[in-house]
Design goal:
single chain; alpha/beta; 46% helix; globular; binds S-adenosylmethionine
Length: 213
């Protein structure tokens, strides 16, 4: 784990949190913003897709898409706790051989990874300070589509993230959450040859689906 950023992210997600998230996923299925990503990707009608899930957490996206439209998946995650739970669940579902798990900051290992048909980042850009670097590396790896979720740019989300970061500071925990400017993320994706084909909103999260032009 060469970068400090990755170490900070790794420490931010405990084994207990990851276990609880997997329990919730088993009981209730994917979270609402994850459902938006799944619907959006499925709407493209791609068959036998090769999926790259960046910061996949307990792996809900690949667990679901490997059931119908994906052939194989790569899950790159900075959190060892999440990866451990994602691997357990993939094995339980009989997908163990079809998922390649990598413990790293995606931006550090991107140059060694092959391209994929579909790239997903569900609630990931908000954990990473440099969205240019992360999204640029993600677009370089997507041959057809990219879907991601991020916190909405609303007054209440600005306030909530400020409060969360204030308490992180009090705890002397260097992990921060980020509300990146949506227009700038959209402009980056356009410059990299993508167009936005779907935009959906929940109270907290927004989901955008992009296709390569
Ligand atoms: C809030 S969790 C979301 C997990 C999952 N996608 C979900 O929505 O349930 C953020 C995830 O992104 C990962 N992450 C953040 N920045 C990353 C990076 N640069 N490379 C790889 N993983 C990253 C974290 O380790 C964590 O698993």
């Amino acid at each position: 784990m060469p970068c400090n950023c990755c170490e900070i992210t790794d420490n931010a997600f405990s084994e207990a949190e990851a276990r609880a998230e997997l329990r919730n996923y088993r009981r209730r299925g994917p979270m609402n913003q994850t459902k938006l990503i799944l619907e959006a990707i499925r709407s493209l009608g791609i068959k036998n897709a090769n999926l790259l899930d960046i910061g996949g957490g307990v792996g809900a996206i690949h667990h679901e898409l490997l059931e119908d439209m994906a052939r194989e998946a790569t899950h790159v995650d900075a959190s060892s706790a999440y990866l451990k739970e994602a691997k357990l669940e993939a094995a339980r579902r009989g997908h163990g051989e079809r998922v390649h798990f990598i413990h790293a900051d995606f931006t550090d290992v991107a140059s060694e990874l092959p391209k994929a048909d579909v790239v997903t980042l569900d609630r990931v850009v908000c954990c990473y300070p440099d969205f240019h670097r992360l999204l640029k590396a993600a677009t370089d790896h997507s041959q057809r589509a990219l879907a991601f979720t991020y916190p909405r740019e609303t007054w209440y989300m600005r306030f909530a993230l400020k409060v969360a970061n204030f308490f992180q500071g009090l705890r002397k925990d260097p992990f921060r959450v980020f509300l990146h400017p949506v227009a700038e993320m959209d402009a980056l994706l356009k410059t990299e040859g993508f167009e936005r084909v779907s935009l959906r909103r929940l109270f907290v999260w927004e989901m955008a689906l992009y296709q390569r032009r």
